[in-house]
Write a structure and sequence with these properties.
heterodimer, A: mainly alpha
Chain lengths: 276, 204
């Protein structure tokens, strides 16, 4: 179709007279216009199909069959709490079967709830029982057998064993360690490893302190002695003559001996008794 | 009903007001069913599609902001559902064999049986031809000529400028009419061939 004048006139809302005028001059548009008119006449003669009453009833039931996206949020929250009634659960399931967004959101929330809980470490129960608030009215025996006291006994026992030069593990085994209760074994294990760590840390700290002390004493002492000797034995400073700048104004180049650092001044050697 | 009233109606539906939902169904149920019918040309499919449209409508009521007429919004929400059905029907080629019953419900009753038969045949041809034109033209023709929607309502529903809607409508009408004419001509030729075959058989 080369001529689009009829289409232009139709879009512009031109009058029927304008359409007729163009059709008379353009055979292509005359045919096109006639075909469009025929199609319109066909559709004009039809009526809308009437909706059946059963459909109306089904449409009215929709709010009881499903839930909106915004209503689904509340129902998902109720479902997670286990407080959703069966009718609402059906509505929610119906909605989720059609709505990808709500399904993804609900799935994420359910997945979060179903995550596996991590296994508690063996020392946790002992720590928790040790952290329990102390009651004022506890009896002597209860205090003596409290979690903290058990740990203290374990520390003490391990310390005694180690001081005696014995292997705590072997002693524990011989003493029937395996037959002890889980919490007691955990406490002893914790105490044993803790004492080892602490002794190691103490040893390292002591060695570090000793090294620092030695260094401090040696360095400061040596420096003090050297300073004192230097003050006593220091010769009068010589006045160095002004000399021209190196390599300029005809001055001779300095010899390598003249290039000495400040601390490298020529001094007389110390007597042997003052040498450190 | 103004868009403010429609917005109010939707707000009441969102609150779970049964009366508001009944009003919405009664106001738009017939129109939605007619559109669904024209896209499917089958009563059961149209009912199913209408239910799907209203389900989607109910689930997305919070998206309506009152910016344009509710019918246009309903169309925009349900457009994909209608087009999906339409494509499926085209793939199944069931559009090309529109049944008598499917056409009869669209015809205004007339006393003259001959005139009725002629109209039925032309209507069947119309829907067969409609199945052969591109989707973007067919949907405009369905919405405007078969369902009487305004240009601005169609434009808002399909997110098209009004000029484009008119232009497509003109081309859709011309295309459909051309297809009908071609079918008529083919039938004429086929009829002539059949007559010749019968005549030849008689001679033999």
């Amino acid at each position: 179709m080369s001529c689009r004048e009829m289409e232009r006139l139709f879009v512009a809302g031109a009058s029927p007279a304008d359409h007729e005028a163009h059709r008379r001059t353009c055979a292509e548009c005359a045919l096109l216009g006639r075909e469009a008119d025929e199609s319109l006449a066909l559709t004009d003669g039809l009526r809308a199909p009437s909706w059946p009453p059963t459909l109306r009833q089904a449409l009215l039931e929709i709010p009881r069959q499903t839930v909106s996206c915004e209503g689904a949020d509340a129902l998902v929250a109720s479902a997670l709490e286990g407080e959703i009634v069966p009718a609402d659960e059906r509505r929610l399931q119906s909605h989720l079967s059609r709505c990808a967004g709500c399904t993804a959101a609900a799935g994420a929330l359910y997945a979060m709830r179903d995550l596996a809980a991590p296994e508690p470490p063996p020392w946790l129960s002992t720590r928790l029982s040790a952290a329990r608030p102390r009651s004022e009215k506890r009896s002597f025996f209860r205090k003596a057998l409290s979690g903290k006291m058990v740990i203290a006994y374990a520390y003490a026992a391990a310390l005694v064993v180690m001081l005696l030069g014995l292997n705590p593990t072997a002693v524990a085994r011989k003493a029937g360690f395996a037959s002890l209760g889980v919490s007691t074994r955990s406490a002893v294990t914790v105490a044993q490893s803790s004492i080892g760590d602490r002794l190691g840390a103490m040893q390292e700290k002591s060695l570090r302190a000793l090294a620092a002390w030695r260094g401090r004493v040696g360095g400061y002492g040596r420096a003090a002695v050297m300073n004192a000797i230097g003050i006593v034995w220091k010769p009068e400073p010589k006045k160095t003559p002004n000399r021209p700048r190196l390599g300029k104004e005809g001055g001779a180049a300095a010899s390598s001996e003249e290039f000495q650092l400040a601390g490298g001044r020529n001094r007389e050697p110390l007597p042997a008794r003052f040498r450190v | 009903m103004s868009t403010i009233d429609e917005k109010e109606l939707v707000a009441r539906c969102r609150e779970g007001n049964d009366d508001a939902w009944r009003e919405l169904v009664d106001r738009f149920g017939q129109k939605v069913y007619a559109i669904a019918y024209h896209f499917t040309m089958k009563r059961e499919d149209a009912e199913e599609l209408s239910q799907e449209i209203f389900l989607k409508l109910f689930e997305n009521l919070h998206r309506y902001d009152g910016g344009f007429p509710l019918v246009a919004w309903i169309l925009s929400v349900s457009r994909n559902l209608c087009i999906d059905r339409y494509r499926r029907k085209k793939r199944e080629k069931s559009f090309r064999f529109v049944s008598d019953d499917a056409v009869t419900v669209l015809l205004k009753s007339e006393d003259d049986p001959a005139s009725m038969a002629l109209k039925k045949e032309r209507t069947r041809l119309l829907f067969s031809a409609l199945a052969e034109v591109p989707e973007d033209l067919a949907e405009i023709l369905i919405l405007r000529d078969l369902n009487g929607l305004a240009y601005d309502e169609i434009g808002k529903a399909l997110e098209l400028p009004e000029g484009t809607v008119k232009s497509r409508l003109f081309r859709a009408r011309a295309e459909v009419a051309k297809k009908i004419r071609e079918r008529h001509e083919n039938r004429g030729t086929a009829g002539a061939f059949a007559t010749l075959a019968v005549a030849a058989a008689g001679l033999v």
